[in-house]
Amino acid sequence: MTNEMADDKSKASIKEQINQNLKKAYETALNEDVPDRFNDLLAQLRKKEGGK
Questions:
Q1: Which of 19, 24, 34, 36 has its CA 20 to 30 A from that of 42?
Q2: CA-CA distances (angstroms) from residue 44 to 5, 10, 37, 41, 48?
Q3: CA-CA distance, 41 to 1, in Å (whole number)?
Q4: Residues near 15 by beta carbon (within 8 Å), at least 6 away in sequence
């Protein structure tokens, strides 16, 4: 295997690790609960809009 091929494999491996970590972080963020203060703000906005 040439150095260039080894570098390409190494770069691909690093990119795959980054992709996996980003997906994990995104999934974790999606599964987090909305903070109570945001729910309170949304309720206030709905009340001002007439409960739409």
A1: 24
A2: 59, 52, 11, 5, 6
A3: 59
A4: none
Which residues fall within 8 angstroms of residue 46, CB to CB, at 6 or more apart? 52
Give the pLDDT confidence of 1-52 residue by residue, as tens digits: 577 777 888 999 999 999 999 999 999 999 999 999 999 999 999 999 985 5
Q: Looking up tokens 């001002």, which residue turns up?
A: 48
Please list, residue by residue across 2-33, b when 16 or more beta carbons sit within 10 angstroms of its beta carbon and e when fewer do.
Answer: eeeeeeeeeeeeeeeeeeeeeeeeeeeeeeee
DSSP 8-state secondary structure symbol assigned to residue 13: H
